[in-house]
Q: What sequence folds into this?
């Protein structure tokens, strides 16, 4: 298990980011999706928790085989997806990722939002007070992102919002900018497979960090698109975008629609489930199946012919040795 805490500051307020977060997730998922790969929304509906109150529950499938490193693609099936389950009780959220093909793999993320510059060192005292972890600050303006994801229009050093007047952030902006908020994320990655655990957990944390950096940059760079939206309007945008995304990746309705199954009582579903999802098929992955046309190995004759007892008696004549060639008896 590898635990890290990420702190990402934004030139927004917590109330503003509630809309921006929903808008960014929907638009980002749509942009990153293509036929056969991307984010399929399985379920998205209101949910009530006895402790956290009213919230939203979502379940998604993230298809990402081509985005895996080559060593990972070599051991997973081509149809590979990660299940995301999220409980959004803003300003507190829980997100879990599991994979039916890798039952010992999971990511658990707890997020809290506060109007400060990342200065609350005790924010996760109830969740991980005695757990050792690395604290990583992510700067949306100055930290480098993978080159393939860079867009000048989404660079906070160049972007300036017309509706809010915020933007063109410079080094050290977190020390003086107002307003400012922080996303605190406690991320636990588990991959309990001997020989691969450290490598996989470190790789997953690198991916998580890149996603957090890109997503928060986009949320701010798209602020003029969502700033005037109400909660009802962003929910409608979310619904329409999710439908378009499902069509984009070529999702066909399953035989049993998960979204049509009624929610269980909140007392039953209050805690996040960490059990792996049930795969769509019970068939073994292709690379684990026995080839149908494999030639049969012929290490022994297919039939065994025993000598005829009558012929053996006929051939067993005086003067004839076992090493001599057998011959047909002369007919009288």
A:
């Amino acid at each position: 298990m590898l635990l890290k805490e990420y702190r990402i500051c934004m030139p927004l307020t917590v109330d503003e980011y509630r809309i921006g977060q929903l808008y960014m997730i929907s638009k980002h998922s749509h942009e990153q999706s293509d036929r056969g790969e991307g984010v399929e929304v399985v379920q998205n509906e209101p949910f009530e928790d006895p402790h956290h109150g009213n919230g939203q529950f979502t379940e998604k499938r993230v298809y990402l085989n081509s985005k895996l490193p080559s060593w990972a693609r070599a051991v997973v099936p081509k149809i590979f997806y990660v299940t995301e389950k999220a409980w959004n009780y803003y300003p507190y959220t829980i997100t879990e990722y599991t994979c039916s093909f890798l039952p010992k793999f999971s990511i658990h993320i707890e997020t809290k939002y506060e109007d400060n510059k990342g200065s609350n060192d005790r924010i996760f005292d109830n969740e991980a007070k005695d757990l050792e972890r690395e604290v990583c600050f992510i700067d949306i303006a100055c930290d480098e992102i993978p080159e393939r994801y860079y867009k000048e229009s989404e660079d906070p050093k160049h972007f300036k919002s017309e509706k809010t007047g915020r933007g063109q952030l410079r080094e050290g902006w977190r020390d003086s900018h107002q307003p400012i908020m922080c996303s605190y994320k406690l991320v636990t990655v588990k991959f309990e497979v001997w020989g691969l655990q450290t490598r996989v957990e470190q790789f997953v944390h690198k991916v998580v960090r890149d996603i957090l950096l890109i997503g928060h940059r986009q949320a701010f760079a798209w602020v003029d698109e969502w700033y005037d939206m109400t909660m009802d309007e962003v929910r409608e945008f979310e619904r329409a975008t999710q439908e378009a995304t499902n069509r984009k990746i070529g999702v066909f309705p399953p035989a049993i629609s998960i979204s049509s199954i009624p929610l269980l009582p909140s007392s039953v579903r209050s805690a996040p489930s960490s059990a792996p999802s049930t795969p769509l098929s019970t068939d073994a992955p292709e690379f684990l199946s026995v080839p149908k046309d494999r030639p049969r190995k012929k290490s022994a004759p297919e039939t065994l012919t025993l000598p005829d007892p009558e012929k053996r008696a006929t051939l067993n004549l005086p003067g004839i040795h076992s090493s001599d060639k057998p011959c047909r008896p002369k007919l009288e």
